[in-house]
Specification:
By secondary structure, the protein is α+β, with helices and mostly antiparallel strands. It is built from 1 helix and 10 strands. The longest helix is centred in the first third of the chain and has 21 residues, at about 1-20. The structure holds copper (II) ion (CU). Copper (II) ion (CU) binds near residues 81 and 113.
Length: about 140
Amino acid sequence: MFRTSTVLRSCAVSFLLIAASCTPDTPPPPAKEAHANGLTISYRLPTGTIPLNEPFPVIIAVESAAGPLPATAAVQVDARMPAHNHGMPVRPEVVPIEPGLWRADPMLFQMPGHWQLIVTVGTAPTTTQVAFDIHVRP
Ligand SMILES: [Cu+2]
């Protein structure tokens, strides 16, 4: 009896350890962050990476010292290749998800190289723009 219950208990413990170490399967990459005009603006890639020449979404987070920015703030998302003087062939729709969070979709980087993800946040009377450098591999 003692032996059986010990075995059962150790199985339960190892199952819990496996479950804990497997969740989440693929941890999301750390957000990239910029600070300007008292705002903290960051982006995250829900898919983990940027696929070349395929649409992908990006999540934008905006906070001030008072907390997450309300969904009424005007957030625009664009991307450019500064060396080539062109942008994306698509115009992403930017939709508020919850206070402080927006989803821009679709993004599309049609060629490898140096891109800038440009986030513009309008909080009247100020407009804040930050650019994140992104290098897309061939
Ligand atoms: Cu280009």
